[in-house]
Amino acid sequence: MASNDSDRGPTLLPAALKVLIAGGFGAGKTTMVGSISEITPLSTEEVMTEASLGVDDLSGVENKTTTTVALDFGRITISPELVLYLFGTPGQERFWFMWNELAAGALGAVVLADTRRLETCFPSVDFFERRGIPFVVAVNCFDGAAVYQPEEVRDALSLDPQIPVLLCDARVRESCKEVLITLIQHLQSRAASTV
Amino acid sequence: MSDRRTPDKASDGPGSPVRPYVMTEGREATNTVQLDMISVVISARGEVDELSLEPEQLAILDLCQRPLSVAEVAARLDIPVAVVKVLMGDLIARGYMLARAPYTIQHPVVGRDVLQAVLDGIQRL
Ligand SMILES: Nc1nc2c(ncn2[C@@H]2O[C@H](COP(=O)(O)OP(=O)(O)O)[C@@H](O)[C@H]2O)c(=O)[nH]1
Ligand SMILES: [Mg+2]
C-alpha cells in the first residue's frame, strides 16, 4: 500500500506494530500505557466499528451510533523504521465489537490481572486463547490486596505452562518494560518452536 | 463541522453525540486505500487545492508534516478513527498524502528480525 512519491518516498514512513493491553475495568491498563509511552497517552472516541458505521447507509445506524467507546493508546519509537503502539482494550464486555478490529494484526497482548478481583481478566484470557493471539499475564498488585504468587494465578486461570505469568506494578516504568520484554521473548520462543 | 449538518441526514436524537458521516458525505466512493488504525501517514509535499478540501482534511495535512498513525491523527483532531480513514483515503487518492500499512509478521525470517528489533528497542528505553 505504500504509495510512491517523488518527494517523500515510502522509506520515510515507519511501519507500525501494535500490542494490546487488556484486563478488567480498573486493572491498570491506562496506567501501564502511560508508564511506558513516549507520548502522553492519547484517546479516541469511537462511535462504531466501520463495518457497523455504514457511512452512506444511515437508516439502520441511527439507533446504534449512541455507543461510544474510548480507546487509549501510547507509542514507543523502536527505530526510524518501526513504531510500536500500545492499545488499552475497552474494559467492558459490551465493547467486544471493538476488540476484533483492535486484535487484527496485533503482535500480542498483555493481560493485566487485578489481584483484588482476578475473575475480571477471564474474558480477556478467553478472547486471546480463542483467537490464538499470544499473550502474557501481568499480575498487577494493588495495595492491601491479597498477594498471589504467579503460579497461583496460573492455576486460577488454567493457563498453559508456556504462557508467562509475572508480577508487575503498572505505575512503574521499569516494571512495564519487563512485562513487554517478557511478551516479546515469549513471541520469539513461539516463533523458534514453530519454524 | 456542525454547519455542514443537513436535516435529511440524521436527527439529533438524544444520545447521538457525534454524527461523523455528515463530514464524510460523498467521499467514500473515492476511497480505495485500506487504512488501518495504525497505518502510518505523512502529507506529501506540493501544492494543495485548498478549496476542494474539507477543513478537517486541511487540518489533517497540517498535522501530518511528520509521520503519524491514523489513530494519533484521530485523537489529536478529536475525530473518530472511522471518519479520519475516509477523509484520509480521499487525500491519498488525490496524491496529497502517503500511507504505509502496518507491519504484519508473515515471513518467519523477517519476523524474527523485527521481533529482535522490538526487543532491543524496548530494552533501550
Ligand atoms: N496500587 C496500584 N495501583 C494501581 C496500579 N495500576 C493502576 N493503579 C491505580 O488503579 C486505578 C485504575 O487504573 P487504570 O489504569 O485507570 O485502569 P484501567 O481501567 O484498566 O485503565 C488508578 O487510580 C491507578 O492509579 C498498580 O500497579 N498498583
Ligand atoms: Mg482505562
Automatic annotation (TrEMBL), chain A:
<dbReference type="GO" id="GO:0005525">
    <property type="term" value="F:GTP binding"/>
</dbReference>
<keyword id="KW-0378">Hydrolase</keyword>
<dbReference type="InterPro" id="IPR004130">
    <property type="entry name" value="Gpn"/>
</dbReference>
<comment type="similarity">
    <text>Belongs to the GPN-loop GTPase family.</text>
</comment>
<protein>
    <submittedName>
        <fullName>Putative ATP/GTP-binding protein</fullName>
    </submittedName>
</protein>
<dbReference type="InterPro" id="IPR027417">
    <property type="entry name" value="P-loop_NTPase"/>
</dbReference>
<dbReference type="GO" id="GO:0016787">
    <property type="term" value="F:hydrolase activity"/>
</dbReference>
<keyword id="KW-0547">Nucleotide-binding</keyword>
<keyword id="KW-0342">GTP-binding</keyword>
<dbReference type="Pfam" id="PF03029">
    <property type="entry name" value="ATP_bind_1"/>
</dbReference>
<dbReference type="InterPro" id="IPR052705">
    <property type="entry name" value="Gliding_Motility_GTPase"/>
</dbReference>
UniProtKB/TrEMBL annotation, chain B:
<dbReference type="Pfam" id="PF05331">
    <property type="entry name" value="DUF742"/>
</dbReference>
<protein>
    <recommendedName>
        <fullName>DUF742 domain-containing protein</fullName>
    </recommendedName>
</protein>
<feature type="region of interest" description="Disordered">
    <location>
        <begin position="1"/>
        <end position="25"/>
    </location>
</feature>
<dbReference type="InterPro" id="IPR007995">
    <property type="entry name" value="DUF742"/>
</dbReference>
<feature type="compositionally biased region" description="Basic and acidic residues">
    <location>
        <begin position="1"/>
        <end position="11"/>
    </location>
</feature>
